[in-house]
Structures are given as structure tokens and as C-alpha cells.
Amino acid sequence: MSYKDNYQLLIEKLDQFIRKFYVNQLIRGGLYSLALLLVLFLGLNFLEYHFYFKPGTREALFFSFVGISAVALFTWVALPLLHYFRLGKVISHEKAASIIGDHFADVKDKLLNILQLRTQADSNSTSRELILASINQKSEEVKPVPFQRAIDLTQNRRYLKYTLPPLLLLIVVLFAAPSLITDSTARLIEYNKEFEKPAPFRFLVNEDSLSVVQFGEYPLTVKVEGDALPNEAFIDIDNIQYRLTKESNNTFTYRFSNVAKDTEFRFLSGAVESKGYTLNVLEKPNIIGFEVKLDYPSYTGRTDEELKSTGDLVIPAGTNIDWIFNSAFTDNISIRFANSAETVETKRFSDELFTYKKRALKDEIYRLYVSNNDLPNADSVTYSITVVPDMYPVIKAEKFVDSTNAKVLYFIGEAADDYGLLGLSFNYRIKHDNREGELKTLKLQKSEGKNTAYRHVFDLNQLALKPGDEVT
Q1: CA 305 to chain centre
Q2: Using CB atoms within 10 A of its CB, is residue 57 exposed (0-12), middle (13-18) or buried (19+)?
């Protein structure tokens, strides 16, 4: 067989040995990893089972277990597996030869010498043929040596002493007391959740109903369930304990008053402590204040006004009203007028501002409703609109005839209007030959204001009347 065949066969046998070397490491690392993970797993479960750690401690234990497991598996399993596939840095042929030489002492020097000669052959061209012949001879001498026997995979059985005891303990516990493993593991996995340690009794609260309207009162009822019921119990709020009122053997009560924010609490009785609860505050929608802009009809002569937080209005008919509501924690404001069965929605134009416009034509009662997602129609308030109608102007007149001259007439009286008179006039018409004449109008003096007194002298002598004429 040629030099090349003998040397190549030697290298192949060394490569086979290297792969077996990493298989051996993989088996041993797997046993080490399994033993470590089992010990950690059992230890953490036993500790959690007896001590019921707080969420922060359980979180630290959980991630410690994950971190140690990851490091162990990477070091003892993943790296040998990568090296088996010749990924990463693997042992050299020289190192493999040295390991084989430790097992087969008579070939150690020969193997190392062959590898050294091969290096010299590549660098020394003058003696190359002589060196290759020497390599071939020495390769032929070590050819019968079974390199792979230098590693005995069965020797890994001695590492079972680390793996079998925790594995057998885990199997025994799973059959004898499975809750020790299952319950503890579940709590460790849900490390950020608080669990209540089993006790002779436990506190029961309806958690779905733990909500109260802001600044309101909340009557809390606590049930106690177990073999031994406590005679007294306490509630811990902000590290201050208050005695619960005992209603029966298994029922206690407590009343929260003027709850302004979310409140955390727990129950205590002797050495028994419940998990933490939270009384959630529902922010109550409310109207902080509002403006009412009044656009009066032109006939009134009144200047438009803005009123602050005035809901009861007395206004002239035809006034345009614009409400602007400033609210807090409010998603909707609606209005219902007494003469309507339907509720109308106001228009939202910013986070906390709503508006609604209406023209007032008659007296009405209206109710405001404020709501949010948690508290629909949480509160309401009622106001009234009183409409003052535009009355017709009134006039009173008395007629007097001059006793010395029947053709001189005196008219005296008063005139009034609720928004003031625009004008006052004396009007007459002459009928001639049964034909109506043109209406004549004489403006009279009036005073400023809603009421005015007047007087007028009507002298028929100045009309140049003819026989048969009539004056109206």
C-alpha cells in the first residue's frame, strides 16, 4: 500500500476517534446536565412547597433555574454536539494522538512522529521522498491498533450515580405526593402571581365585584371556609390593620368610606394571611361647570349674555341657547326634554368639553345625564327653561268734547309694550260720497321706556269737511 493510502487511513482513524471522543463527552454531559436539572428542579419545588415565596422571590428562583439550565446544557450538551459535526474549535490530530497514546503507550511516540514527519515533508523538498517512506513505514506499523478502543463508552455508567437518585426521587414523589411537584411548579412558572398558602381556613371574596364609584362607600363581605374557623379577623390597608365585624361564624364585614383611589388590602387572622386584593375605583363622570350663551331676538333690544353654571333660565321667546359643558372623566353628556321621550346627545368638541344648541319657544323642563364607559348615566340634574312670550302692545284712550266747541275733540290715554314702544300715532280717515279716503297718520310724542302717557287734540274745523262727510 502506498504512502498516501497508509497515511490517509491513519487520518481517517484519527477522525473517527475524535468523533467518538465527542460522543463520549455528549453522553457524560447529558448525564451531568440531567442530574443537575433534576436536583435543581426538586430543590426549588421543595422550597416553594414549604415556604410559599413572594412573587419577587419566585421570579428570581425561576430565572436562576432557567439560566443555570441553559449554561449547563450549552456547555455539556450543545458544545460537544457542535464539535461532533466539526463546528467550532475541535481537538487536533496531535491531541487525539496523545489521548490514544495514553491508552496504547507503545504507539504514542509513533503517532506523534508520523504527524511531525508529515509536517516536515511539506516544508523540506530535498528529503521529501525519504520522509514519505518513513511515514509509510510507521503508518503500516500502527495500522493494526484499534484507536477507538481508547474510549470506552460504557465507562459512563459510573455517572449514573449522579442521575438515578434524583430521578428515582422524582418518580416516587410524583406517585406519592404529586401536588408537591405539580402545585409548586405551577406557582414557579406563574412567578408574578401571588398565591395564598394553604391554612386551616381561607378567606373568600367575590373579586368580580371589587369596584366602587369614586368617593363612594363599599360594603365588603368576607367568607371564611375551612376546618377551623377564626373568632376574629383583620383587614390590612396601607399597613394599618382594622378589625372586621363578625356577622356569623363564617362571615365578616367591613365598610370602605369615601374611596378616592384604588385601594390594596389583605386579610389576617393569627398566622394566616390572605393574598392581596384591590378595590378598584370607578372614576365618576361629572360636570365641573358650564356656560350658557344667550342670543336674544332682535325685537327685545337686549344685549346677548353669557351665564356661568346657571341652568334655570328665564328668557324671551325665540332666544338661541348654546350650552358649553366642562366635564371630568366623562365620555358622554345627553339631554332629555320633558316634552320628548328621546334623549339627545351633546356634541363633543374636545376631551372634556361638550356643547348643545337649542332655540327656546316654550316652557320646558330638561335633565342632563353624564356617563362614561364604566358608569352609564351615573348622575343627572334637572333644570327649567321659562319662556317669556312677546305680548302685543296695549293702548288705552279716552275722548272728551269741548263744551264750547263740539268740533274740537280731546284724546287722553296710555300705551305700553313689554319691550318698549317703537312708535305712537293718531290715525283718521275721511269718507266722502261713500268713498273711503286716504288714511292720515299723525305721529304723537311718547316717552322712553315700556309705558308712555299721551294727549292729542283733534280739531275737525281744520279738516274742511263738507256736508255728508264722515270722519273715522
Answers
A1: 43
A2: middle
